[in-house]
Amino acid sequence: xxxxxxxxxxxxxxxxxxxxxxxxxxxxxxxxxxxxxxxxxxxxxxxxxxxxxxxxxxxxxxxxxxxxxxxxxxxxxxxxxxxxxxxxxxxxxxxxxxxxxxxxxxxxxxxxxxxxxxxxxxxxxxxxxxxxxxxxxxxxxxxxxxxxxxxxxxxxxxxxxxxxxxxxxxxxxxxxxxxxxxxxxxxxxxxxxxxxxxxxxxxxxxxxxxxxxxxxxxx
Length: 219
Hints:
Helix content is about 65%, strand content about 0%. With about 220 residues, it is mainly alpha-helical.
């Protein structure tokens, strides 16, 4: 699914679109937009935690979604149940993350996975795909003009847990890692030769997510 800078970029774009009329605490919205992946910072992580944090149970294993519409309906239900919460802005960001991953799964990952199942050298190509996706995330951090403001807001986000989904202490570890380790001190990345995750593909994906998620969360 999408890496953290992509999630943050989409969330920040949504803040610009809604113009300050719905989200009262942008800092919490941005932190929420990466929060479902806090499970990776659990001391005894296993993929079942990822399925819970992403309200996913729609295939034989994470990454093989067989009921895409069922997943989207589950996300919509989750948002409906949480849009009245005291930490609504955080939960709006949380659901923005889920919808971004749903869109990624539907229009990027699932077609790529099916292509690999048709006889391509899966390990070789998948390894390159993962490398490019990670590299593009770093490229966005290093080159996007909004990075500094995103990081300023992210640092101010209030850490909390979501019952049945993520633990507060895991999110605290994730937040610290993103702010001070994930992208810090990395050499400039060159994405000019990318084939699977180009600047054009990523720009279109981000635009599509902003348009679709705005209708789900802000209307």
